[in-house]
Amino acid sequence: MNVLIIAGGMSRRMGRDKGLVTRPDGSRQIDHIAGLAKQISGQVHLSVRAGTAPPLDLPLVHDLRPGAGPLAALEAAATTSPGPWLAIGCDLFLLDAETLARLVEQRDPSRAATCFLNRIDGRPEPLCTIYEDRALVAARAALDEEKHCARRFLESLDPATLDLPNPVALDNANTPGELEECFAKLTNGASRKTVRVLHFAKLREERGVDQEFVETYACTAGGLYEELRFRHRLSLEAFALRAAVNGDFAPWNAPVADGDEVVFIPPVAGG
User: Fold this and answer.
1) Looking at the domain assignment, is residue 177 inside a domain?
2) Are 9 and 117 members of one domain?
3) pLDDT tens, residue by residue, 9-22
4) In a domain, 243, yes or no
């Protein structure tokens, strides 16, 4: 099996190359992912953005359609070697060997792809997925039709789906706040907890409730809000809010424990 590490994103929201981020153990993120990939296969390739110096010595895959996202990386990979290809996003800071081993062991070659379901919204995750040859052909067809969304493409394949052995393994990080949450999970562990969330103003309008009890693996107030925002497609970004934990204003990296009461306070007219 070939492995493709997809590291070609622009990282605009993070403000720096996510592959070069230093993890809590001192290693670079790209080296962590490469190490996991090499446990699966001796054929590990790297997809990087055109004009970017490769961060490590691996065979490179160059997109045939620059800027077209992960599907373009899959299309290019298929021209170098037949499938199956295991595609891994370089921003999976919590990915572990057990998760990749489960994916490979339970691969279903009778289906176009084998993947995990996202723990928050239950949809398939395209950047930790095994793509069979017919999926790679379909990727080219999707690009020809200018359909670039990797998740919708994966759903269209009717993939074999698996539950995650480590629930947070595919939590990614697109912003500095999300990275801080990932590092909190790496440092402190991630356990399921139940918290009470109170909603006011615009958030109450969008959720349709004053309060709710939420099961979460978040370690911080910021991580909790991003889970809620992703699950319910909330419109407000964290920078527009203030957080309070158990009645006191708190920074976004404030820890969240089982039984806590959390409020995310949106801006209000005149205040």
Assistant:
1) no
2) yes
3) 656 666 677 888 89
4) yes
